[in-house]
């Protein structure tokens, strides 16, 4: 019942507010995700119209290292800035390769990994008995490549799925029937679940920066992962992960190594927080340059969790930090 209520509230917010977070209104400073902006570009531009200075910072929900992803995205952003001269866009890239690919296409891009903006207070180290050798928190969908964990004998799985992918989901869960699986877990319970495992898995070959990868580390467990596009490992402490070939055997071997010996949890947590702070300071410097140009005091507060994006927000939070979407008729 609670889940349905949350979905209803989210639906109301989605209809009334654009998917973004407004940090400042004069000058206008806005955070949004790449696809959230481009899919509703006309609505954003309509709401931005009338402001003399708009600074839009875009996070990347999927890799933009390849030309296939970078070129159409850069075209969309260039067209938006041409349509509204007061708009400036800065992309917060997750990997150096994304900085290179988008900068080459004329888009201002800085390396500022999204996972730096997780509120570390939400993901503490919890002393728990280690029940599982590995945990994989991921939607059950082909790009997450759950099959690579099939030889991990002590496995915890948490992940929702789309009903449209039900045949794939059923096969995947049948192949991993030895794993303890839960479709949904409250976000507040995720640290407790992570703390029952000896390491976390990241098995996709391309996606975005994967928030849960940093959540594993903040909770004090190391990572077994495969090579990937999307920059999730940009924030990893070098001693806290193993990158392995794309085979079930290699994944299981690395998990087994961590089951026997792994870095001290507090050392993992402290190292990733230090890496997060570097990117927070990069963004803070960017914001303060803008505010200084407009004669405003510097931003000195904490950044909102995940920059206020892709999270459940209460209506009053959207009212204060949201950008209300008007109909074309209302704005005419």
Summarize the structure.
The chain is α/β, with parallel strands linked by helices.
Q: What would you say this structure looks like, in words?
A:
Strand 8 (155-158), helix 6 and strand 9 form a beta-alpha-beta unit. By secondary structure, the protein is an alpha/beta fold. It has twelve helices and 13 strands. Helix content is 39%, strand content 16%. The chain is globular and about 60 Å long. The two termini are 40 Å apart. The chain has helices at 2-16, 34-38, 41-48, 67-83, 96-104, 166-175, 190-194, 211-218, 248-260, 265-293, 315-321, 328-331; strands at 17-18, 20-25, 28-33, 54-59, 87-93, 109-111, 134-137, 155-158, 180-182, 200-202, 223-226, 241-244, 323-324. The strands form four sheets. A five-stranded mixed β-sheet has the order 2-3-4-5-6, with helices on both faces. It has a three-stranded parallel β-sheet with strand order 7-8-9, with no helix packed on it.
The radius of gyration computed from the alpha-carbon positions, rounded to a whole number of angstroms, is 21 Å
> How would a crystallographer describe the biggest sheet?
5 strands, mixed
N to C succession of SSEs: HEEEHHEHEHEEEHEHEHEEHHHEH
Strand order in space, largest sheet: 2-3-4-5-6
What is the number of helices? 12
The dominant shape is globular
Instruction: Please state the structural category.
Output: alpha/beta
Strands, count: 13
